[in-house]
Amino acid sequence: MTSHQPNDDDAPKDPLSEMLAKLFSGDSSFDPAEMAKAAGMPSDPNSMAMMMQQVQAMFSASSDGPVNWQMAHEQARRVAAAGTDPSVTAQQSRDVDEALRIAEMWIDPVTDFPSTAMLGRAWSRAEWVEATMDTWKQMTEPVANSIAEALSEAISGQLPEEMKSMMGGASSMFRNMGGAMFGLQLGQAVGALSKDVVSSTDIGVPLAEGKMALLPANVQAFGEGLDVPEQEVRIFLAVREAAHARLFTHVPWLSAHLFGTIVSYARGIRIDLSKVEDAARDIDPSNPESMQAALSQGVFMPERTKEQEAALVRLETALALVEGWVDQVTASATVNLPSSSALREMVRRRRATGGPAEHAFASLVGLELRPRRLRDSASLWARLTEERSIAGRDAVWEHPDLLPTADDLDDPEGFASRQQLLDASEYDVDAALTRLLNGEFDKPESDQNDSDDDSSGEPGPERS
Fold this sequence. Notes:
The protein is mainly alpha-helical. The chain is 65% helix and 1% strand. Strands 1-2 form a two-stranded parallel sheet.
């Protein structure tokens, strides 16, 4: 009798794992009854169909469109609460209120924008999630819908025909599964961000527009190891929050400009269906973390369209201009704070590199909300303050057309001269328009010469 050496192929395997592998590989030998038996589910087709209807109902519950935003919300709350998310104490609320009041007073002399009269708030991480979730939905909905549809196509495409017929053509279930999977991943990213952010505007966009807030637990964590008094850390971060609030409040078009650029970029994202299909094969339906891991690998095509590249440049420039202005104003407002320079440099590095949570969000939607050119922008705003004074600097925010461009960030020193040339050309156009409206262009050239000669008091040349 020939001896037989065991190998990996002969090793005992979990029957359910084998069935799932066949399911997602589209193996034609797949037997739904075998999977039901291995999973401990009823093998009777009617009972199986009833169970599938129940699963479908679960995925369709509380779903607004292709994406299950309710699931995203609940997952974000769970992640935010994981470990510890202490409720804000009365003392912390008073500390935050005092810090934001001080910040408002310190900012008054260094910006032309008046106070917002907003009340300072102290939020737990869960409260930050509640206050910002609608904005996350607005920013991610275009790409979320694309991902949900792509996942639906990929997952349903992996099923053999006999399973599809058993499910009674419940194709909406797969669409909702895709929406649920994206919702889980988005919730994971937002929940992780709740542990990093120190304020409502910490990522450079007004996630909770019309509100000023600090997260005391995260402010405390931010200052750990810095050898800086906690009160100084809190005041410095409060000044940044108040500066953001003034800018977004008194420049009403700015929020729409940022979100519009984000949406413009997201709408152009193309899903790589081959990656989605590969991800679907790796998903273990009994393990939600496998869904998150599959999505976090990225399902977007690496190539960007020209329209996306243009939108990305506009977004990065706008984020840099916002953060550069806030950085410059904060530096001026906190000049008498002993730790100001050290805290400023720490914030600059933190915003430029981003944390793990920001990278997770970038992997999910293919977009990084980081001001790569913060230092160039801060230098430009500082130069404008010297050349035009505070009022002249802040007047640049009056209209999007007045804002510096990416080229201006390359050459901050030349922005003023280029703007003067632009102003001069606009003056020439205005002067020409005035002459046209006054009818001066209708006069014959000889008449204009006569007028010029008469005005000088000298006789004109004789005419034949």
